[in-house]
From TrEMBL:
Protein name (database record): Methylenetetrahydrofolate--tRNA-(uracil-5-)-methyltransferase TrmFO
Recorded catalytic activity of this chain's protein: uridine(54) in tRNA + (6R)-5,10-methylene-5,6,7,8-tetrahydrofolate + NADPH + H(+) = 5-methyluridine(54) in tRNA + (6S)-5,6,7,8-tetrahydrofolate + NADP(+); uridine(54) in tRNA + (6R)-5,10-methylene-5,6,7,8-tetrahydrofolate + NADH + H(+) = 5-methyluridine(54) in tRNA + (6S)-5,6,7,8-tetrahydrofolate + NAD(+)
Cofactors required: FAD
Keywords from the UniProt entry: Cytoplasm, FAD, Flavoprotein, Methyltransferase, NAD, NADP, Transferase, tRNA processing
Binding site for FAD: 9-14
Protein source organism: Roseovarius nanhaiticus
Length: 450
């Protein structure tokens, strides 16, 4: 077997696709433009660099669709999950990682693999032959993006995504803040104290909202329009939707007790999560923002405990692009117009590190099995990956297609179970039990790994 699988993009999706295909015995070339061609968001030339957050979200594989996706990727020998587990940080019930060692480890594993070659070069044209996966993510280069748009016959859809600020821990006033995960969730003391909490009373909250609404914001360029992805809204956009929105979102005060004032229930709480293994950096959870830097620092220092905060990185906003996948891709993630090309990752219209890596895992396996002459079926719809790929390649309404996180709303109902909140625990467990069985059956059908 001499056919090569070419992968454009070395992010989460491209890295996972390369790993899966290489382990099946296929020769893989990763084409990554960094560090020769930089982006405004990336800092290094490492593969699988995490830009927006260091969290893979919930790791609960029985009651959460994201946790179920973690389970499926681990069962498939996924590189991203293996490496995330290796560099895990305390985060309550979530899976957060030390982002720089994580990316370095992924890069080392891929560059050391005998079936993988990494080429540091930008590709700006649609490949005419061969086997290809385009996994260029939300920051697809202008040249390649224009080539894809020209071939699709319509402009790619777009939305704006925002980055949360990161703060030096030693600049946080711990006489006002405290460490606690909501409802003390976690099996170890580190997990139960994984989040740093900054409380607000009602007057402080109201003043914060006023300042947030009045702050200078980043303006879009002339002619540049797009919607926001609801799962990653800037805090000021949430505030514009109502003064109580943040207090019922990322600033909700439930499940927490302030040890400095145990008898006083906070009106709102800002949470920070450890961003590196040393515990020297913390990111503000859910605080993606488009405020300009000067205003941003001023407003965030209104948060009790952050009055003297020093920022390792301020928040920002960038434009993400993605395909109208229901009209362009088949259920094997192939471009209908050019079936020698598959797409994977956020460019397909999934949202989040986990979902992007999962689509890379599928694209890598599907492409490799085709190259090996043993084509396999798409994953079953009852699995988490199957539900997600079904949504983006046909289950979603093309006219209103928007980026989607994995969630149980994408799953087919289980007969005989109650709907509504009261039946949710049993329903979610039934979804995950059914998904695990379906996923294991699909894995057995994958051509043997080398």
């Amino acid at each position: 077997m001499t056919q090569v699988l070419n992968i454009i993009g070395g992010g989460m999706a491209g890295s996972e696709a390369a790993w899966q295909a290489a382990n099946m015995g296929v020769q893989v070339v990763i084409h990554e433009m960094r560090p020769k061609v930089a982006t405004f968001a990336h800092r290094t030339g490492d593969l699988a660099e995490m830009v927006c957050s260091n969290s893979f979200r919930s790791d609960d594989d029985e009651q959460n669709a994201v946790g179920l996706l973690h389970w499926e990727m681990r069962a498939a020998n996924g590189l991203i999950m293996q490496t995330a587990d290796k560099h895990r940080l305390p985060a309550g019930g979530a899976l957060a990682v030390d982002r720089d060692p994580f990316a370095a480890s992924v890069t080392e594993a891929l560059r050391a693999h005998p079936n993988i070659t990494v080429q540091d070069a930008e590709i700006t044209e649609i490949p005419k032959d061969g086997h290809w996966i385009i996994a260029t993510g939300p920051l697809t280069s202008a040249g390649l993006g224009e080539a894809i748009a020209a071939e699709t016959g319509a402009d790619a859809l777009a939305f704006f995504d925002a980055i949360a600020p990161i703060i030096h821990h030693d600049s946080i006033d711990m006489s006002r803040a405290w460490m606690q995960s909501r409802y003390d969730k976690g099996e170890t003391e580190d997990e139960r104290t994984a989040y740093l909490n900054c409380p607000m009373d009602r007057d402080t909250y109201d003043a914060f909202i006023d300042a947030l609404l009045a702050a200078d914001k980043t303006e879009f360029h002339e002619g540049e329009t797009a919607g926001y992805f609801d799962g990653c809204l800037p805090i000021e956009v949430m505030a514009e939707r109502g003064r109580e929105t943040l207090r019922h979102g990322p600033m909700k005060p439930v499940g927490l007790t302030n040890p400095h004032q145990p008898d006083v229930k906070p009106w709102a709480v800002v949470q920070l999560r450890r961003d590196n293994a040393l515990g020297t950096l913390y990111n503000i959870v859910g605080f993606q923002t488009k405020m300009k830097y000067g205003a941003q620092a001023e407003v965030l220092r209104m948060i009790p405990g952050l009055e003297n905060a020093r920022f390792a990185r301020l928040g920002g906003i960038h434009r993400n692009t993605f395909l109208n996948s229901p009209t362009l891709l088949d259920d094997q993630m192939r471009w209908r117009k050019h079936p020698h090309i598959r797409f994977a990752g956020q460019i397909t219209g999934v949202e989040g590190y986990v979902e992007s890596a999962a689509m890379g895992l599928l694209a890598g396996r599907l492409a490799a099995s085709e190259i090996l002459g043993q084509p396999m079926a798409s994953p079953p719809q009852d699995s988490a990956m199957g539900a997600l790929i079904h949504h983006i390649t046909g289950g979603a309404e093309a006219k209103t297609f928007q980026p989607m996180n994995v969630n149980f709303g994408l799953f087919r109902p289980v007969e005989g179970l109650k709907g509504g909140r009261r039946g949710r625990t049993d329903r979610y467990k039934a979804y995950t039990d059914r998904a695990k069985a379906a996923w294991q059956d699909w894995l057995v059908a994958t051509p043997a790994q080398a």
